[in-house]
Write a structure and sequence with these properties.
Order of helices and strands: HEHHEHEHEHHHHHHEHEEHEEHEEEEHE
Structural class: alpha/beta
Radius of gyration: 27 Å
Number of helices: 15
Bound molecules: iron/sulfur cluster
Helix content: 25-40%
Length: 470
């Protein structure tokens, strides 16, 4: 903490998971109350002013004292920090236990929805009384997570129906609609609690038993029994192998990190003299439409790094790779020749790199080419969209009525009209050619949604982007 504080003091996150040591031992969370206080003390004394503490409720073998102890611990921490600094922002984040396959608690059902709400309410009262800032994870979302975590073949039907019901954004809480999910389960004759809350017997065949994850089931049973007895198991990073089954100690064994990636990058940065500018041309189709701009940014920094391309990083406290996805497509739209710019050390064998990148790129992303980027000005581009006949019909109809626009509300709640005529260059057959600048572009998704044309599958494809600047 003292070392980190020399460069960057963002929010500190500690995950005690449980309020009492008894429960932390049961779940094998090797962190003591003393360590939590000590870490926060060092943080506060070294200039940190914000921390998040993660806890979980509904844990196996939990009782009401365990739940309430979270608020007690938070209250004591708050008082402790107040004695060190006046301005420490503490947030308590509470999630709900979701049983996961291949863990010692895979047999234990999730608390019922009403039980989780009861526990949340108990805590809420205490938090409010003691003026502690808190956040709860949605109980309904946790129930659905538990179903998919422990699901068997029958759940594939639910997934399929969920896609037809347009639930593809439900991982984002603002889009999550539990009523919709309840109907989907009801229509498939599947009860959420049969999957989420059911306790399995230790000798029972589990839906995921046919998958070999390396960890053997007897080991998990032993760990579960240790948990029931309140016994902690030592961590295998301290030379105490418990024979979980993962390592064969020939090809698979624990390897401890030598140099961190950050250290390596600092070394590369100081040794490298020359970087070059490149463009990646890629397509984003089928599953690829689900990636939003930040995710694609992340994906490309991973795959470029794995492929051995030495990216240039920005300077400062929070170095980031020099990557720029040009005029990112919104989620749900396909792109044929998308452009991502990056700066890296010189690339010798482009063809090999393209093959390697395609080996590791996720489904729906295909790298087509890497070429030198000769453009200094990338703020003006020509984009070519291809639309399906029915979509094109609507565009032409709105153009004829002088209504080829949509409205967008900005942060100050002011409505702005975005007019296609401000962007349009030409229309040829089923292609619309537009000009985008750094002042923004035209969003077809918003256009169709504005005119209530909400089809699950859209036929809009961005076919090309041409950089106009020299
Ligand atoms: S050292 Fe390997 S086999 Fe032993 S407990 Fe750890 S992961 Fe399992």
């Amino acid at each position: 903490l003292q070392e980190i504080s020399k460069i960057r003091r963002s929010s500190l996150t500690i995950a005690p998971e449980a309020g009492l040591q008894r429960l932390r031992d049961i779940i094998n969370k090797d962190i003591s109350e003393e360590e939590i206080f000590r870490s926060l003390e060092i943080a506060a004394k070294n200039g940190w002013c914000r921390a998040k503490l993660y806890f979980m409720i509904g844990l196996p073998l939990e009782n009401d004292d365990d739940v309430l102890s979270i608020a007690d611990l938070a209250y004591r921490i708050k008082g402790f920090l107040k004695d060190i600094t006046r301005n420490f922002d503490l947030v308590i984040s509470i999630s709900n236990f979701v049983p996961k396959p291949f863990t010692p608690f895979q047999w234990v059902g999730q608390n019922s929805i009403s039980e989780l709400f009861r526990k949340q309410n108990m805590l809420r009262k205490k938090f409010l009384k003691r003026k502690i800032r808190f956040k709860f994870h949605s109980v309904y979302q946790s129930a659905i997570e538990a179903v998919f975590s422990r699901g068997d073949f029958a759940i594939s039907k639910i997934l399929q129906n969920a896609v037809y019901q347009d639930t593809i954004y439900d991982a984002w809480s603002e889009f999550f609609d539990f009523n919709k999910w309840q109907n989907i389960f009801k229509n498939s004759d599947i009860d959420i609690k049969d999957y989420a809350s059911r306790d399995y017997k230790l000798e029972e065949q589990l839906p995921w038993d046919f998958i070999d994850m390396g960890v053997n089931k007897d080991f998990l049973k032993k760990e579960y029994m240790n948990a029931v007895d309140g016994k902690q198991s030592p961590s295998c990073d301290q030379n105490s192998c418990r024979n979980c089954g993962v390592c064969d100690f020939k090809d698979i064994k624990n390897i401890f990190a030598e140099n961190t990636r950050a250290q390596k990058l600092i070394k590369i940065k100081s040794e490298t003299k020359e970087f070059k500018k490149y463009q990646i041309v890629f397509s984003k189709k089928k599953h690829g439409v689900l990636y939003f701009a930040i995710e694609l940014h992340r994906i490309f920094s991973y795959i470029l790094n794995i492929s051995g391309i030495m990216l240039k990083f920005s300077e400062g406290f929070n170095p980031a790779p020099k990557i720029n996805y040009l005029f990112p497509l919104p989620v749900r739209l396909e792109g044929e020749d998308e452009i991502l710019l990056f700066i890296s050390e010189g690339i010798d064998n482009v063809i090999d790199k393209v093959v390697r990148l395609n080996d590791i790129a996720p489904l729906g992303i295909k790298i087509k080419d890497i070429k030198k980027n000769i453009h200094k000005n990338i703020s003006n581009v020509i984009v070519v969209y291809k639309l399906r006949a029915d979509e094109m019909r609507l565009v032409r109809e709105k153009m004829a009525q002088n209504k080829a626009h949509y409205e967008r509300r900005n942060r100050n709640n002011i409505i702005k009209k975005i007019n296609m005529f401000d962007y349009i260059v030409d229309i040829k057959g089923d292609n619309i050619i537009l000009k985008f600048t750094d002042a923004g572009g035209f969003n077809f998704l918003e256009f169709f949604s504005f005119w209530n044309y909400n089809k699950i599958e859209l036929g809009i494809v961005r076919e090309r982007i041409l950089i106009c600047g020299g």
